[in-house]
Amino acid sequence: NAGVTQTPKFRILKIGQSMTLQCTQDMNHNYMYWYRQDPGMGLKLIYYSVGAGITDKGEVPNGYNVSRSTTEDFPLRLELAAPSQTSVYFCASSRPGSSNQPQHFGDGTRLSIL
Amino acid sequence: GQNIDQPTEMTATEGAIVQINCTYQTSGFNGLFWYQQHAGEAPTFLSYNVLDGLEEKGRFSSFLSRSKGYSYLLLKELQMKDSASYLCAVSLDSNYQLIWGAGTKLIIKP
After folding, report:
1. Whether B96 and A31 lie within 8 Å, measured CB to CB
2. Residues of chain B found within 8 Å of residue A41, distances taken between Cβ atoms
3. Dihedral (C-alpha) B109, A104, A7, A9: value to the nearest 10 degrees?
4. Those residues with Cβ within 8 angstroms of residue A104's Cβ, 6 or more apart along the chain or in another chain
5. Which of A36-50, A70-84, B69-83 has the lowest mean pLDDT?
6. Cα–Cα dist B32/B49, whole Å
7. What is the model's pLDDT at position A109?
8. Mean per-residue pLDDT, A8-18
9. Minimum CA–CA partner of B3 in chain A
10. In what order do the strands lie in the sheet with B70-75?
11. Three-state secondary structure call for residue B81
């Protein structure tokens, strides 16, 4: 079972470059999330989606964009990379229905902006 | 605002018991999760509490007091593989958005 798959695992960008972090899940989960995790800090929600065609901002959406054209895929776009976006990015998914459904995480993308 | 507090780091001995505390002040409450995260890896789900009391799951147990805004994770018979960060997260509403604590790094010594 693949679960949540993120690509790439590592990436170095120059300031001002753009890139898309890919996330796909094969569990037919409606809910998907993007987080960033900085050293010594909790996970911060960037964007989330409750289903195909529906996205919403989380705590720290500035500098990022998302789309959700299918249930499986939830890519995260960085348009103009800045050093403050150096972080580890995690994609997660969960089933709707009741609040006890845990989030399942991908292995993360380690992004450095230089 | 939303606030979740956990100790930054704890040290325990192999075979012993450790309790990791989590206190929260949030605008809503729809349950509390504990996750384990090994260094360089993704968080993995450990437990969920929405009612007061203790939930036991093998060597791991989790406790919740909603009136005190308090939870703890109890790890028994510690093993070296339990060395990891333990993350506390509160679900605020029905969209299942979580507010995360910074995590507690647990170091197990032989």
Report:
1. yes
2. 102
3. -10
4. A3, A4, A25, A27, A29, A92, A93, A94, B45
5. A36-50
6. 5
7. 97
8. 96
9. A42
10. B3-5, B18-25, B70-75, B60-65, B53-57
11. helix
Q: Which amino acid is at A31?
A: Y
**Residue tagged 């249930």 (tokens):** A71
DSSP A41-94: S--EEEEEEEETTEEEE-S--TTEEE--SSSSB--EEESS--GGG-EEEEEEEE
Residues in chain B within 8 Å Cβ distance of A94: 96
- Asked if residue A93 lies in contact with residue A32, where contact means CB atoms within 8 angstroms, the answer is yes
Residue in this structure with the two tokens 């580890």, named with its chain if needed: A88
> Which of B98, B99, B104, B105 is best to mutate for the A interface (most A CBs within 10 A)?
B98
User: Length of chain B, please?
Assistant: 110
Instruction: Tell me the one-letter amino acid at A99.
Output: S
Tens of pLDDT, residues B57-100: 999 999 999 999 999 999 999 999 999 999 999 998 766 788 99
What are the tokens at A65? 């964009």
Query: The tokens 């289903």 sit on which residue?
Result: A51
